[in-house]
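LOG
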Amino acid sequence: TSFSTPKKKKRDDGMREHVTGCARSEGYYKIDKKDKLKYLNNSRAFAEEPPADTQVRTCLLLTAGRRSEQRRLLSSFTGSCDSDLLKFNQLKFRKKKLKFCKSHIHDWGLFAMEPIAADEMVIEYVGQNIRQVIADMREKRYEDEGIGSSYMFRVDHDTIIDATKCGNFARFINHSCNPNCYAKVITVESQKKIVIYSKQHINVNEEITYDYKFPIEDVKIPCLCGSENCRGTLN
C-alpha cells in the first residue's frame, strides 16, 4: 500500500494543479496566502470594471426608463396643464406647514405657518371615495351618532370624498364668502383628486378659507365668516 505521493505541481497562473483532476477527491488542503490574494485581486478587478458595452447598455436602459416614467406622469394628468403636475409632485414631497386651531369663524380652522404665494397648491383634500347612495346612508348615521359636522366633498356626479372619520387637516378649512383659496379637481393616474389652491398671497397665521358652494336649499345654514360681502348663508 505504500507508494510515492506525486509532487504537487503549480500551474502557470500560480494556482495548484490537481493531480487526480478533481479538487474534491484530494481532500482539504491549505492554499498559500500569496496565491489567495492574487486570486482575490484578479476577481475584484473583473468585478469592478465591467465591459464598456455593458456600461453603455445600462446607461441606455436607465435613460429609457426615466423617459418612460416622465411620459407616464404627463399622460396621467388628463385635462390639466403641466404646471399642475409639477405642483402636485412638490406638494407630495414638500408639504406646506399648516396647523389647525380654534377659529373665529366656526369651531376649528386651518392656519398657515409659512407664507404661501398666490396660485399654489396648499393641501389635498383626503378621504374615502364613496358613491352617492353610501353618502346618504352615512349622513343619516352621523346624525344618529351625534356627529354635528360631516366632512363630505363632492368630486363629480358619482363620487364623493368622505373625510369625516379618516382624512387630513383639509377637512378643518372653513367657508368664507371672500376666501383666500379655492378648490380644484385634478386627475392623477386616472383618479380624480381635490386640491386646495391659494387664490392670493397668504400670510403667516392667516386662516385658510374657500367657498363651499353649497346648493341652494330651503333650510338655510347661517354663515359666520364676517367678510364685508358675506351672503349671510352657506346655501
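LOG (cont.) second protein
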Amino acid sequence: QLEGLCSFLQLSTCPEHLLVRFCSWLLALTPDLSYTSAAILAEQLFLQRVLSLTQPPSRHLMAALASFCSKYSQPFCRVLVAAVLREPGEGAEQTKLVCELVEECLEPDCVRLVLSQVLEVPLSEKLLPVLQAVLGRQVREPPLEVLPPKLFDLLVMTLCWQAPAFATSLNYAKLVTAVLTMYQNQVS
C-alpha cells in the first residue's frame, strides 16, 4: 500500500526542495516508521535520484538524505547504499555521496554495516574510497567500537585476495597502509 501511495503522490519525482520538507515531516511522525516502511520510503524517495546522479547532489537532496539518515539509517543503508555498491560502472558521484554519508551522517553501527556491504561485493576501484571513508571514521572517532573480529578478518582477507588486481592502484596502497597503521597489533 505504501508503494502505491508513493507512486500516486509521485514522490520519486517531486522537487527536491519539497523532499526536504517531506523528510522533516517524516521525522516528526510518532510513533516512528517501521523498518519496512522506512526501507520502502528510502527506495521511493532517494534510490532513482541517487543512481542517476551525474554531478554532485544539490544541497536540498543532501539535506533530505541527511535528515532521513539521522533517524532511519539502517533501512537507508540496506536499500540505498547496498544498491549503489552493487551498481556496475564508475558511479563517481554515487561513491562520493556514500563517502560523505559515511563521514558525516551515519551512526557507528551503520558505518560497520556499510563496511560489511562493501565486503559482500567484488572489490573495485570505485569502492576503495568507501573503505577509506570507513577507516577514516574509525581514526576520527576513537571511541567508535573496534571492528568485530569476523568483520576485521574479512577485511584483511579481502585486501589480501584482491592485491594482484590492484597492483598499480594508489588508492589500494593507501587503504592497505591505513589498515596496517590502524590495526598493527591485530595484523600478523
